[in-house]
Each structure stands twice: as structure tokens, then as C-alpha cells.
Amino acid sequence: MKNVKDSLGIYFYKFTAMQLKSKILILGAIITLLALTAIQGYLIYNTYELKKSAFTIDARNAIAVIYGQKQVDSLMWDYRNDFLKQLESYKKGQITKPQVLENLKEKVEPINVLFNDFYNEEIKKNNLKADIKCKIIVTQIQIVDSLGLKTDFVQKDNNIFLLGENFDSTEAILINNSTWQQDHDFINEGNPDAFGLNFKTSIYMNILNWKQNVLKVMAGLLFISVLLFIFVLSLLYYSIYNLLKQKKLAEIKTDFINNITHELKTPLSTLAIATKTLTNRFAQDDKAIAEDTIKTINRQNRRLQNIVDEFLSNSVSSEDIKLNEEEFFPYNFLNNLVEDFKMSSATDIEFIKNIEKNEVSILADKFYLGTALLNILNNAVKYGGKKIEFTYIFDKESRLHIIYIKDNGIGMSSKYKKQIFEKFYRISEKDRHNYKGLGLGLYYSNQIIKVHKGELSVKSKIKEGSTFIIKIPTQQP
Ligand code: ADP
User: Fold this and answer.
1) 157: how many CB neighbours lie within 10 A of its CB?
2) Each residue of 223-280: pLDDT tens digit?
3) Could you tell me the superkingdom of the organism this chain comes from (predicted)?
4) Confidence (pLDDT) at 199
């Protein structure tokens, strides 16, 4: 036994080391994926910014080329000459400041039609695949007379629109600022007069669908990135899923080894003592001791046989269960089953039977169905049930035979209500170490109910007890 213990110790040590390793592995993989995602996101963002600025530079260059053309120059001078005349009139006191600006706007209006026509024609030639608008606004108009006196017509905070399309400046990109500076001489009431002009303008552009354009250019890259991301994520998911599955299997294996050693330990050590007694000369001479010891050997032998039998018979899956079905009314069958069980159980256990007598038949294998119900009844007693309620009804609406086996034993947390039907699964909580078993009973019962096209479930509460519910459909029309 010591050897088994030692090898188990090594096994557990390896197992916990493996658990730690798999945790580190999962964490490492998740961190790597997050880092890769962040790097990829950063690269995509950078590419986006790069494409955006390349696109903006292209658009800016195209506009600069248009503005550099002599047609635009001559359109500018068209209003500029007139504007100087307006300023002369202002200096002569013939018009007011607002009138100067009003006249400028009036003069520019027909020029703007020509300007826009020219601009639209030219911008098309660049084939930029985006709607690029541009405008010129006046940010300052100031004149300085010969005495250095300054007069402002337009200041920074009250810009006026001059040429192009009048879009909102907040979402526009500033292309450049330029200043038209001019010293202008004229004759004022017969005397020479002069003023210096500061006429500052800003050119703005607005690319209406640049985001779509940049994204269109990046579509291939984005698509491959998303695809790769999904691929890596699925790979990671699959690996983690497999790792957890392996981990669970390893856990089940450990539990099983643990349980079976525990189960075999008592009969094996009793057999060892019995053999020792028989080999003892004194015992050989004493018939009573010898007979007693042989009885013990037989008992322990039977116990070992039962454990092996339980393992062999209860570990088969639903595919290996070959039913020998017959059609019968459940009343007598269930009544006898509960009565027989009652007889074999301790007397301090109270049984309550509610078995409905009806004319609805069930198609089932009596041996297997009986085994499934007895496993559940045995558990009800094993896990502390002192009062066991066995109820059977036929539900007309769902056409199901329903059996409830209720106990007032130790119960269980609802988080285990699926796992307890898995092969070798045992709830390994601290207060359950004294309950022996291999974790096969409910697995086997569930397999049996499944081959009867039925369903086995549980409702339970810790310290209050459990109710196992078996539902089997009737074949009767
Ligand atoms: P075993 O009883 O050999 O452990 P089972 O498959 O019969 O295996 O049961 C699986 C687990 O479900 C048990 O380990 C036990 O913790 C829990 N269980 C089963 N029946 C009951 C019950 N009536 N009350 C409380 N817990 C139960």
C-alpha cells in the first residue's frame, strides 16, 4: 500500500505542476494575443494616418497647382483692382466701411462662378477619387495711411468668405495663408494721397469622403487583418478548450484512482490479516477461529467482486446497452421495486409512496429501468436520506411517465446538477469524504434513461436534500 501511496504522491505532484503549467500557458497565450492585437491595431492606425496624410498631400498639391495657374491669377486681379478703387472712395469719404465690404462681395460673386467652374474642371483632372472642395476666406483687411493711422475692415475674428464653396471651416484643412500687400497712390481732392494695404487670405480645403476613400484603399489590409485575428483567436480558443478538456480528464482520472484505491484498501487489508491468521498455527488448530476467518475472507472477496462488478457494469455507455423491452403498466412494477428496496434498507428510514395507478403503458427493459431507479434510491440512502418519497405520475399533457425520488439527505449545490451524470464524477467537497463510491451510479442511470428516450435531472439544495426526476415518454398513442 505504501508503494501505491508513494506513486500517487508523485502523480499528484505532477498533476498540480501540470495544472500550474497549463494556467501559465493559457495566461501567456492570452497576453500574447492581446499584445499582438494591440500591435496590429497600432500598425493599422499608423497605416491609416499615413494614407490619410498621403491623400491630404495629394489633394493639397492639386489645389496648389490650380491656384498657381494664370487663369486664377487674372480672376484675382479682377476684383483686386476694383477693391483698390473702393478703398479710394472710402478714403475720399464717399462710402462707408460696410459699403466697401458689400461692394467687394458683389464684385466677387460673378467672379466666383468662373472660379468654381475652372476649379471643378481642373480638380477632376487629378483623378483623386474624392470630392475635394476649397475656399478662400479673408482674415484681415487693413489700410495704413501716410501718417501711420490704421483702419481695419476685416479682423481675425470676423473673417469673410471670398471665393470657392462656403463650407464650415471647423472640419476643413488649412492649406496656406497669403498676404496681398500693396502701397496705393491716388489723387484725393486734387492732392496726392496714399495708403498701404494688408489683405490677408487663407485657403481651406474640405475632402468630403476622405475617410471612405482611405478605408477603401486599406480594405484588403483590414480584411486580411480581421481574418488573421479570427484565425488566431479560434486557434487559441481551440487550444484552450483542448487543454481544459485534458485537464478535466486528468482530474477525473486522479479522482478515480483515488476512489478506487480507497474502496480496495479495506477489503485488501482485511484479507491480508485473515491470511495471516490462517497461517498462524494456533488458528489452524482452532476450528471456530478458522471458520470465522474463512467467513471474513468470503465477505471481503464478495466485496471486492462487487466493486469490480460495479466498475464493469456501470461504466458502459448507452450505445452498449441492449434493451429487452416489454410493454407494461408501471404501477405493479414500481410498487414491487420500492417494497423490495424498503426491505433491504435500514429500518430507521421512512418511505413514502405515491404511485399513481393508471392505464398508460410504458415500453421499457424492466431489468435496466430497475437498476437505474435502484441506483438513485441507493444514493438517496447513502447521502443521508432518512425520509424518502417515491412518486410516480403520468403527465397527460406532455405524455410523459414521471418519477420523482426525493430525499432529505445532504443535498448538493446546483452547480453540480449536470456534472454528477458524467462518468467517474464525484463531488469532492470536504464534508463528502466519508461517502464511498466510484462516481458511476448516476452516469449509468442516466445512460439507461437515455436509451429509453427519457431524461434524468436533479433538483437539490445543500443540507435540504435532492429530488431526482425521471421522465420517459409513453409509446401508447
Ligand atoms: P457515487 O455515489 O459512487 O459517488 P454517483 O454517480 O452515484 O457516484 O453520484 C455522483 C455524485 O453525486 C456523488 O459523488 C454525490 O456527491 C452526488 N449525489 C448523488 N446522489 C445524491 C443524493 N441523493 N444526495 C446528495 N448527493 C448525491
Assistant:
1) 6
2) 998 998 899 889 889 988 988 888 888 887 887 887 788 778 878 888 888 888 888 7
3) Bacteria
4) 94
- 439-473 tens-digit pLDDT: 889 999 999 999 999 999 999 999 999 999 999 99
- Distance from the alpha carbon of residue 447 to the mean position of ligand 1, in angstroms: 15
For the CA of 410, the nearest atom of ligand 1: 25
For the record, the C-alpha cell of 6 comes out as 508513494
Residue 16's pLDDT is 66
Looking at 3.40.50.1970, 3.40.190.10, 3.30.565.10, 3.30.1060.10, the CATH number of the domain 318-473 comes to 3.30.565.10
Are 210 and 172 in contact by the 8 Å Cβ rule? The answer is: no
3-state secondary structure of 436: coil
Regions of the chain short of the pLDDT cut 50 = 1-5, 7
Which ligand 1 atom is the nearest neighbour of the CA of 409?
Answer: 24
Q: Specify whether the CB–CB gap between 272 and 300 falls below 8 A.
A: no
- Mutate which of 260, 378, 427 for ligand 1? The one with the most ligand atoms within 8 Å of its CB, which is 427
- Tell me the DSSP string of 266-293: HHHHHHHHHHHHHHSHHHHH-HHHHHHH
Residue 1: predicted pLDDT: 42
Ligand 1 pocket test, candidate residues 315, 414, 422, 426, most atoms within 8 A of CB = 426
Q: 113: which 3 cell numbers?
A: 462662378
- Distance (Å) from CA 342 to ligand 1 centroid: 20
pTM assigned to the model: 0.58
Q: What is the rounded average pLDDT for all residues in the chain?
A: 87
Instruction: Tell me the three cell numbers of residue 69.
Output: 495657374
22 close to 243: Cβ distance less than 8 angstroms: yes
Long-range contacts of 403-406 (CB under 8 A, 24+ apart): 403/334, 403/373, 403/469, 403/470, 404/467, 404/468, 404/469, 405/373, 405/376, 405/377, 405/380, 405/467, 405/468, 405/470, 406/380, 406/465, 406/466, 406/467, 406/468
